[in-house]
Amino acid sequence: MGRIFIDFIKFKMISFEYNRKKMFLWMLFSILIILLFSYDFINAEDLTSKRPESYSKYSYVGYFFYKSPNLLRFFCGFIVLLFLYFFVSLIRKIIKGNVFYENRNGFLICDDVKIVKISDIKNFDVKKINRNIYIRIHLEDSKKFIKEETNFLKKLNFHIVNYTEKTPLIMSVDFFQEKPNIVLDKLKKLVFNSELK
Prior knowledge:
By secondary structure, the protein is an alpha+beta fold. The protein is 54% helix and 21% strand.
């Protein structure tokens, strides 16, 4: 009886540990980017007032931002906000330590958030995109999945990802401790073995 219960848990829920060392390195990089672009944001008037010449402190601002302090501020503000969001998300992951995937009530669930119906999943594969590693979740009917999404931003993101990756659902495994192929195998067991049971 105990063995059956252990097998049930094994196939119904899996967890992946985050690679904290890699996350700390990215956090340091994020801090440097935030500081650099915050400096540019604050000093936009000065940096864009002089013509950018080679080997001067104004050269990296470039001709695109020359005499356009508001444009430089907008660009720098966007970069700062983007890396702040990334930095905060890394802190949350480090505090959490693990990510959990479940096969519950016919859905693939990640940290208590429904991702997709198990019956809609066709297959998984690993793909490397610009040095980033993703697991693609291929669906039986991607168009139907996108159509049923009610959140506009999510739907837009699904359309873009579906166009580039031939599926609307991809998950980054860059910060997982386990190797991508191990993550892939565990996900397949979670989804397909549980479905058979």
